[in-house]
Amino acid sequence: MTKQTMxxxxxxxxxxxxxxxxxxxxxxxxLHEQYGDDAVREYxxxxxxxxxxPLTKALEQRGLxxxxxxxxxxxxxxxxxxxxxxxxxxxRIEVSRCPAVxxxxxxxxPVARLFRETTDAxxxxxxxxxxxxxELIEYDELTGRGIQRFYRRELNQSGTA
Length: 161
Fold this sequence. Notes:
- This protein has a single domain (18-152), classed as Muramoyl-pentapeptide Carboxypeptidase, domain 2 (2-Layer Sandwich).
- The protein has helices spanning 18-35, 37-51, 53-62, 64-78, 99-107, 117-127, and strands at residues 81-86, 90-97, 132-139, 146-152.
- Helix 1 packs across helix 2 and helix 1 crosses helix 5.
- Strands 1-2-4-3 form a four-stranded antiparallel beta sheet.
- It is built from six helices and four strands, in the order ααααββααββ.
- Strand 1 and strand 2 (90-97) form a beta hairpin.
- It is of the alpha+beta class.
């Protein structure tokens, strides 16, 4: 029998990191139990400012289209049911079913009481230093269904946001 060799690169494999969300959820719950709500938000904001620095820069340079492109790619990879509405001053992301929450629930992983902050606190942190801000308009704890809104802040009289 002849020897067969298969050559593969990481990019040849299906993108999967769903169990990451379960680990993140466990970490958030630990922080919440040990140190409280503010510690969870502070951790997520600090992480987001570092990890998403390139996205923040793209948001500042290119506007909301940079966020739409990024989030569209993430939800496509993870199989999210989502609808995007983009204008010059606002991006709305309507999530029908969050792939992270759906996966955790299907695997029996507990979902942290503050898991919503992985959207709310992180999105706000991505916007720091840009003319934009974010809010989580709706969020369903059971499914992760929700509406995220990114919007251009109003300028004050000195011309700054």
